[in-house]
Amino acid sequence: MSHGSIERLKEIRDTRQQQLKDAAIELFGMKGYAATKISEITDKAKLSHGLFYHYFKSKEDLYVQLIHELVDIVLDTIDDAEQKHKSPLKQLERLTEVTHSGSLRDGVHRHILIMQALYSDHLPQEVKLGIVNKYRTIMDRIAVIIEKGQIAGEFIDGDPEELAVYHVSLVHGLLLSNARKLVPIDVSASKVLRQLMRSPEQGG
Amino acid sequence: MSHGSIERLKEIRDTRQQQLKDAAIELFGMKGYAATKISEITDKAKLSHGLFYHYFKSKEDLYVQLIHELVDIVLDTIDDAEQKHKSPLKQLERLTEVTHSGSLRDGVHRHILIMQALYSDHLPQEVKLGIVNKYRTIMDRIAVIIEKGQIAGEFIDGDPEELAVYHVSLVHGLLLSNARKLVPIDVSASKVLRQLMRSPEQGG
DNA sequence: GTCTATAAAGGGATAGAC
DNA sequence: GTCTATCCCTTTATAGAC
User: Fold this and answer.
1) Which residue segment(s) compose the domain that A18 sits in?
2) In chain A, positions 41-100, which contact chain B (CB-CB < 8 Å)?
3) What per-residue confidence (pLDDT) applies to A81?
4) How many A×B Cβ pairs under 8 Å?
5) pLDDT, tens digit, 9 for 90 and up, residues A35-94
6) A31 neighbourhood in chain B, CB within 8 Å
7) Does one domain contain both B135 and B173?
8) Are A196 and A155 in contact (CB under 8 A)?
9) What CATH number is attached to the domain comprising A172?
10) B120, A32: Cβ pair inside 8 Å?
11) CA-to-C1' distance for B125 and D13, Å?
């Protein structure tokens, strides 16, 4: 077998896996893990039902891969925000913007997915624990940013970890609300951060 | 058949239905509709699997009944808050407190349930529409309270409907966060309402 | 009204041809 | 690598005895 054809095969493999992942992100995010059928994933990806199992061991296998990818992307995004900005306020602004925009590929559905993963109980103990630990890391890092912002006088006083929960809860609640598309609004970072600000912000 | 025995039968019927509903609220709330099995509901209610169908036509039948009950309870709670308090701020405070406390029976799980119902798509078009309309009513009424609070000088300026979305998103996000029990916090109404307040509130 | 046993349906996973 | 057909287990729903 020639070198070129091996690369071509790998290319197909990556493409197919990504097709299935993309379809699954949206479906898992919209309907939840249990309610999503393999056939729906393959339909959306325009592949046959059987082919799914050529690329993933099982439905759970795909799910776990997706969750870990997402959490890592969020952590990378925090890295990015911390590198790009010095001000804690601007760091959280950037994080909020990226989360709600499409620039984080399928950002919304992926965030909903991780909420679901943390929330439900169909995953093996060990797998769940790994995700929970990474999630705790995310919360810790946001709390640290908030604490620095308090020292810098940008944010209100209060337990940084508790404020981090309020902040993340709002972000996630807005993602859900907008995904539902019942009362769609344009989410702006400055409005999301109102509850952390020392002086009331009204701008958009 | 005597009059007394008819009433006794009805009593049993109501009790059994409530047992099943109570079990279902928690399970649907924790695991979602699709992931919850009839056998899990009957196990939790300490009844046999078959008996479920003596009291409900189907899994979906029970689900729809629950959702409608919840939405009506929320609307009643808004009525209650408006009657008990004149200040829009105090009205929202009461609504927030009741939502997060146990005084609204199974309040947390019920709220999560309605979020799920709005969000997913396994319900017949007509049923879904009824729920969506009631939800819109809830959002409208909260927006009206916020608007009155703006006039009274209690809340910040801005589109009342948009502020209502931010408020409800935070409430729902916190419910989810606490239900998950990863980073449990004591939710206080004054902290939830920070993002609506004209002057920053720090108290708990 | 309550239970156990069973039918019927749905969907995850596999086999094997192309 | 891709597809169709099929297996098989799980779960919803029903039947019928007590």
Assistant:
1) 1-56
2) none
3) 98
4) 134
5) 999 999 999 999 999 999 999 999 999 999 999 999 999 999 999 999 999 999 999 999
6) 34, 120-122
7) yes
8) yes
9) 1.10.357.10
10) yes
11) 23
